[in-house]
Amino acid sequence: MSKRVVVVGGGITGLSAFRQIRLQQPDVEVVLLEASPQLGGKIRTTTFLGRQIDEGADAFITRVPWAIELCEQLGLDSFLVSPATSNAYVLVDGALRKLPKGLVLGVPTKLLPLLRSRVISPFAAIRAGFDRFLPDDWPGDDESVGGLIRRRMGDQIADRLVDPLIGSINAGDTDHLDAALAAPQLETAARRHRSLIAGLKEQSKKAPEGVRPVFLGFELGMGKLVETLVKSLGEADIRTGTPVTAITKNTDSLVVRTQQTSIECDAVILATPAHQAALLLADCQAASDRLSSIEHASVAMVTMGFRQTDVNHPLDGSGMLIPRGEGLLTTAVSWGSSKWPHWADTEHVILRVSAGRAGDSRALALEDDELVEALLTEVANILDINGDLVEWRVSRWIDAFPQYAPGHDRLIAAIERDLRSDMSGVFLAGAGYKGIGIPACINQGNQSAEATLDYLQTL
Ligand SMILES: Cc1cc2nc3c(=O)[nH]c(=O)nc-3n(C[C@H](O)[C@H](O)[C@H](O)COP(=O)(O)OP(=O)(O)OC[C@H]3O[C@@H](n4cnc5c(N)ncnc54)[C@H](O)[C@@H]3O)c2cc1C
Question: What is the pLDDT of residues 402-441, one digit of tens each?
């Protein structure tokens, strides 16, 4: 008898899982159920000022192989583009300062450029240099990113460089994010070496010569990846607009319930956000409770279009970061038309303005008009913009960023144990668990497919 697998969630994780099962075991019946009318989840490309612009993820990192491998397999290499510039700025006491050369995830590895940048005070730069001489004070596992940086390099490096950068990737507070998961490069360097700077320098010597840019995106937006992946599946049982309401277990099968129907199957890949998985697994109380304990942060992204002549700043970089201490609603601004050459034209400038992060939901409480007004005032003030918006769009990403608190990996291992004992055949994958970036999600989709196929062998 042919086996049936249900994939719940049609983001990049669920789609990767679906594809992998199809590739490896075409005789296994796979059904994908997606709540919303479209596929892609947090990958969403729409038209803005006549261009294809991402409302969510706009690039992926190439230091890990999974996204680039998928692009190669889908024949998408020729559509990939890299950001035009790697320069970026940070706001310090209301003034924009260029980020110094030699940063690794916000950690300075060269002290002279750091001093010259005026991002931190001379005293704080000297404090950062203590890292070279301080004794090994690694406190063991479960350290936060903020904890690590504060003990090795002091508070200003943590508050003005590392938190704005790593915090903006995760919409998180780095004092509460697990160093090993949110910044593995820093954690490994700090664990293996007495000095964080020395550890990072050694890592960079070992890193293979960069043949590829560190980040890549698509000229037609990240939606191109989803669209091509879905096309590659050919005829496939993919049902959009079909929210799953519960997953239960019978004696020898699993049942996936939607508002309209129930599907009996042998295995389920649950590729929804963790807070949704918690609701669907109410029948497995232990796993559900642990899943609910994963916190999520919300972000509002406002895409703004201006006439080029109204913007007096040269926008000579990919964007700017706003540390918490500046007290603004804005957390970061991507200077989209400078970062992505295909967004640029001679008339307009496009900015993507982010607001909201863990511990700061002020922006999310505002109505769209109020939000746009408030962010416009802040951004216009910093970038010396004196014209009206030509076009704007608000994208709200509610509970979109899982927060990997220290010990998150043990929590996930415990949830997987709960499922093996009370709900065998259910596999979790996606941003809530083992990496939030697109490559990590693709990898989790693939891995969950492998685990599912291994499980089917045991039946
Ligand atoms: C604003 C923003 C910017 C980002 N920028 C980047 C970036 O530049 N680079 C990068 O690598 N990463 C970025 N990320 C992170 C990355 O986009 C996501 O972590 C990743 O796309 C998540 O994929 P996923 O498939 O695990 O989850 P999702 O994309 O959330 O997909 C889950 C799917 O499950 C569906 N679902 C939920 N509940 C149910 C249900 N009950 N029944 C059926 N379906 C259900 C949802 O509708 C959704 O489609 C960004 C994220 C955001 C929000």
Answer: 999 999 999 999 999 999 999 999 999 999 999 999 999 9
Whether 78 shows a pLDDT value over 70: the answer reads yes
Q: List pLDDT tens digits, range 39-61.
A: 999 999 999 999 999 999 999 99
Question: Tell me: the pLDDT tens digits for 204-249?
Answer: 887 665 668 889 999 999 999 999 999 999 999 999 999 999 999 9
Are 432 and 274 in contact by the 8 Å Cβ rule? The answer is: yes
In the chain, which residues fall in CATH 1.10.3110.10?
100-206
Contact by Cβ (8 Å): 248, 241? no
In short, whether 51's Cβ falls inside 6 Å of ligand 1 is no
Instruction: Using most ligand atoms within 8 A of CB, pick from 81, 238, 272 the residue to mutate for ligand 1.
Output: 272
Domain with CATH 3.50.50.60 in the chain: 4-43+220-294+404-457
Residue 341: predicted pLDDT:
86
Q: Which atom of ligand 1 has the smallest separation from the CA of 36?
A: 47
The answer, yes or no, to whether any atom of ligand 1 lies below 6 A from the CB of 20, is: no
Q: Is the CB of 59 under 6 A from ligand 1?
A: yes
Kindly report the backbone phi and psi dihedral angles of residue 204, in degrees, each rounded to the nearest multiple of 5, phi listed first.
-70, -30
Q: What is the mean pLDDT of residues 362-369?
A: 97
> Is the shortest distance between the CB of 35 and ligand 1 below 6 Å?
yes
CATH class of the domain whose range is 4-43+220-294+404-457: alpha beta
Structure tokens at 67: 């996204």
- The CATH number that domain 100-206 falls under is 1.10.3110.10
Ligand 1 close to Cβ of residue 218 (< 6 A):
no
CA distances from 142 to 146, 152, 366 (A): 12, 16, 35
Residue 421 CB contacts under 8 Å (≥ 6 apart), including other chains: none
Q: How far is ligand 1, taken at its centre, from the CA of residue 56, in Å?
A: 9
* CATH assignment of 297-402, among 3.90.180.10, 3.90.660.20, 1.20.120.530, 3.30.470.30: 3.90.660.20
| Cβ contact 57:194 at 8 Å | no
Question: Which of ligand 1's atoms lies nearest the C-alpha of 258?
Answer: 42
14 lines ligand 1 (CB under 6 A): yes
89 beta partners: 98, 320
